Each structure stands twice: as structure tokens, then as C-alpha cells.
Amino acid sequence: EEPGLPLDDAAPTLPQLARDASACTRCPLYEPATQVVFGEGPANAPLMVVGEQPGDREDISGRPFVGPAGQLFNEVAAQAGLDREQAYVTNAVKHFKYVQRGKRRIHQKPAASEISACRWWLEQELSSVNPDLVLAMGATALHALTGNGAGILKRRSALEQTRDGRDLFVTVHPSYLLRLPDEDLRESETARFRDDLSRVQELLE
Ligand code: URA
């Protein structure tokens, strides 16, 4: 034992990871983005919620799920008895990807190479938080976490496993609900999303 030496084989803490991620150049998305949007929530949260990537509002504020999709998630989670504040909330990709159209920045889907470059951070977060359950919201998170790119609509509302053997529950992304043009379908799909979040809460109890 050598007193005074840093314990550099200890797992990095979340604040350390977030600081390191702010200097990430593993893929080209860091350049046009305003800042990294790292995960946030309790360091030992029982639940880790994973979305796709930050949007315009998240890019500006530096916090995950604060825009329209995040507000819908908060609302439905509250209805389902799931407390967002108890969850560690993050994204599969940690920089906003967009094309500029006049004054608007239009969200672009991350490429497979960007998702796989960013998976390094997601796996660091998984090891650090060590949640009992992971909630994948949408196809990007599901693919990144499981390695299986099969369609999400056949896999939703069910338990799977992450690459490293953790329990993972599958649901749709709240943005999918916001985009549904048909009001009846939006209502029924939102109800199913609410049921999924209730299941997640039950699994945690
Ligand atoms: N959509 C996501 O997937 N993540 C966010 O943080 C915001 C919107």
C-alpha cells in the first residue's frame, strides 16, 4: 500500500465521467453541438432510463429530456407512479445532431458509427450506476443496449437483457408519440406507454 497515491484503478465517478465526456472527440458530433449532454440522476439509482440523443433544448441547457419529449415522459411517468427524480436519465448518444434550416435546427438520427462510438460512455454509466433495471426508450437505445437491431414495435412492453446481462424493459420513445398524426392512435399508444411505465415501477418494487 502506498499512501498518497491516487486510487487510479477505482471506477470513475459520474462527475468525473461527465467531465471527461465534455472533451470527447470519439465521433464528429461534438463539433457542431453546443455541449455534451451527459446523464443525470442519483449515483445509485435503481432505474436507468435511456433515450436516443439530446434535442435542441437539451443541447442548449446541457440536461437530458427537458424539451417536449422529456415533458411528455415526466407527465406520463408521474401518472404511472414512476418518479423521474429517482431514476438516472441518459441517452445512447450524448451530442445533439442536427441540420440547420434557417433559424431552426432540425434533429437528425444518429448514425450507427456515432451510436457505437458513444456506447463507451453508456457502458461507463451502466457500470457506475449499476441499476437494477434499465428502461430502453426507442429503437436507438434498444439497439445500443442489446446489440439487436430488430424492430422495436415487436419487442416493446417486454423484458430483455443488456449486452452485460442486466434486466432491460423495452418501450417506445416519447417523441414517437408526439409525432403520431392520428389522435386516436396517439391516445392508445400513449396509454400503452403509460402501462409500460407502470410495469417498470412494479418491477422496481
Ligand atoms: N430525446 C431524447 O432521446 N433524449 C433527450 O434527452 C431529449 C429528447
Radius of gyration over all CA atoms, rounded: 17 Å
Structural class: alpha/beta
- The number of strands is 7
The poorly predicted ranges are none
* Gross morphology: globular
Major sheet strand order: 2-1-5-7-6
Bound molecules: uracil
Q: What pattern of helices and strands is seen along the backbone?
A: HEHHEEEHEHEEHH
Largest sheet: 5 strands, mixed
State the separation between the terminal residues, measured CA to CA. Answer: 41 Å
Q: How many helices in DSSP terms?
A: 7
Helix fraction bin: 25-40%
The overall average pLDDT, rounded, is 95
Percentage beta strand: 15-25%
How is this structure best summarized?
Residues 38-198 form the Uracil-DNA glycosylase-like domain. By secondary structure, this protein is an alpha/beta fold. The protein contains seven helices and seven strands.
What tags apply to this protein structure?
two-stranded antiparallel sheet, 205 residues, 7 helices, binds uracil
